[in-house]
Write a structure and sequence with these properties.
By secondary structure, this protein is of the alpha+beta class. The chain has one domain: Jelly Rolls (Sandwich). Helices cover 26% and strands 36% of the residues. The strands form two sheets. It has a five-stranded antiparallel beta sheet with strand order 1-2-9-4-7. Strands 3-8-5-6 form a four-stranded antiparallel beta sheet, with no helix packed on it. Strand 1 and strand 2 form a beta hairpin. Helix 1 packs antiparallel against helix 3. The longest helix is centred in the N-terminal third of the chain and has 14 residues. The chain is globular, with a radius of gyration of 15 Å.
Length: 158
């Protein structure tokens, strides 16, 4: 729960960066959406600003987001919200991605993920775009702190 709360704090902090008002996502591309559905995932763009983009991704049971990369961003945070997920970053072997743990991924780094569970999983991705004034070091430090923080339950904070 503590990691989940810290993850939400990171999201809120990144979304509060200076910039323009929220803008709607571009129109749907039926072919792209069909390919995503075939792999078992569905992204929903929540926030689009000149410097930051936030996307929630639902992954069906056993769904896969094939290895891909984002060349238009400095970095992004991959934060599992629900489910039993596994993430692959760069040439590393796949690792479990516990709920609330933030994964820091530099722009241009190949990565992918899969839902190993029998129920849908949800991920929040926060992208800090090239040219943004957001600090790469500060966000990386936040992600590292989240990873290093001990897991806590609700009873731990009462």
């Amino acid at each position: 729960m503590w990691r989940y709360a810290c993850g939400i704090a990171v999201i809120a902090g990144l979304l509060s960066l200076p910039g323009s008002a929220q803008t709607p996502a571009a129109g749907n591309d039926a072919e792209r959406d069909a390919a995503r559905a075939a792999q078992g995932y569905a992204p929903v763009r929540l926030w689009e600003r000149p410097d930051v983009r936030a996307t929630r991704v639902e992954i069906k049971p056993m769904g896969v987001r094939a290895v891909h990369q984002h060349d238009d961003v400095k970095f992004h945070l991959f934060i599992p919200l629900t489910g039993k997920l596994q993430v692959t970053i760069g040439s590393d072997k796949p690792v479990d991605a516990p709920v609330g743990e933030a994964f820091y991924i530099k722009g241009g780094t190949p990565h992918g993920f899969r839902n190993l569970g029998s129920t849908p999983a949800m991920v929040m991705e926060i992208f800090v775009k090239n040219g943004s004034t957001a600090s790469l070091d500060a966000a990386g430090a936040l992600a590292a702190a989240l990873q290093a923080s001990p897991s806590r339950t609700v009873s731990d904070v009462r």
